[in-house]
Design brief:
The structure is a homodimer. By secondary structure, chain A is mostly helical. Chain A has a domain of about 140 residues: Tetracycline Repressor, domain 2 (Orthogonal Bundle), CATH 1.10.357.10. Chain A is about 70% helix and about 0% strand. Chain A has eleven helices and no strands. The first copy, chain A, is elongated and about 60 Å long. At the A-B interface, helix 7, helix 9, helix 10 and helix 11 of A face helix 6, helix 8, helix 9 and helix 10 of B.
């Protein structure tokens, strides 16, 4: 399995201390939940003092916001890239589901924090993340509608179909773990097959 | 919308004080997470003293276990009832997805606790819940295999298909809220349509 460690998700975060704090925050939030984690826990896990943490992040919420906004930006980027790629709607939807599913399998620890602690975000950061989510959903809806218009897809309700496509991918973070038999890419391919059937794409499309 | 309040999930829990504690625990866990909730929070919300709480539940973990095991028993019961009902695999799968989806929409607050705090369960209770989950998955797999054998379904991989069926229903607890446009039953019908396509059931089956 190609493991994406949380570190891979912040390749450009500098200085190194800030990146170490993000990694420590992911570990701590995943282990005991956001509310039960203190900034001291995070600082200690990163081998720093609480005062040193505040140099980089003014609060625990600022760390959560950075984790959440990075996760959402990355998934939006891959969804938009797939939707804008070459080829017809079936081919682009296949890539979208493969990439979206594999991302959530690889980054399942971060994904759980991103998905389940949404309401702990400060209001402004929450609004920004809601906007990213809206764009992700809209991209998927537009692609389904396009396929619907060209005859590639045939669904009774575009909104429900788009939600189901994203739901399948997102829920991977809940059940995926290091010992899951399918590598992220293989799971992505299987889910893409299922999604294309769900969207009424002709068999073998 | 037919709202299932948490109270409806423990119709037979007596005395009333025990039921009130379960309701207060659901509220508190949903609001601030399991780890950050104290038994004092729960007792206070139920209008009781911590000492009075311990008369009914020896610990916060005992409350979580009761919530989790009731939720899993109820979903197992409806999955087994649908799988054992009259009719062919398509008809039974339709009922299974409708009931499973509607349950998770109605009980989304409890569902979040049941799904996301699984690892906070004491080891023995965790093992019991894992066994209930195994039976739910096995029931779905068996129904898909039956449909596969009779020609009603046609999936490349029964395990992945069963996981996707359950995943769609379970993920409803993450995004469903009181203002969602579709009532639980309507969402169940739409998801059943999508799932039957995913399983390769002939259109209009």
């Amino acid at each position: 399995m190609t493991a994406t460690t949380p570190a891979d998700l912040w390749p450009e975060v500098r200085p190194e201390a800030a990146r170490r704090l993000l990694l420590a925050a992911v570990e701590a939030f995943a282990e005991r939940g956001y509310h039960a984690t203190t900034t001291r826990d995070i600082a200690t896990a990163a081998g720093m003092s609480p005062a040193a943490l505040y140099v980089h992040y003014p609060s625990k919420a600022a760390l959560l916001s950075e984790i959440s906004s990075t996760g959402h930006q990355q998934t939006l980027a891959l969804v938009e890239a797939a939707a804008a790629a070459e080829g017809g709607p079936v081919r682009r939807m296949r890539r979208l589901v493969e990439d979206f599913t594999a991302w959530h399998a690889r980054a399942h620890t971060i994904g759980r924090i991103v998905q389940y602690e949404l309401h702990a975000l400060p209001p402004e950061d929450y609004a920004a993340v809601v906007e990213l989510r809206r764009r992700i959903e809209e991209t998927v809806r537009t692609l389904i509608s396009e396929g619907q218009a060209s005859g590639a897809f045939d669904v009774p309700d575009v909104r429900t179909a788009a939600r189901a496509v994203l739901s399948l991918g997102i829920d991977v973070v809940r059940w995926y773990h290091e010992r899951t038999a399918e590598p992220p890419e293989e799971l992505g391919r299987r889910y893409a097959d299922l999604v294309l059937r769900m969207l009424g794409a002709p068999a073998g499309a």
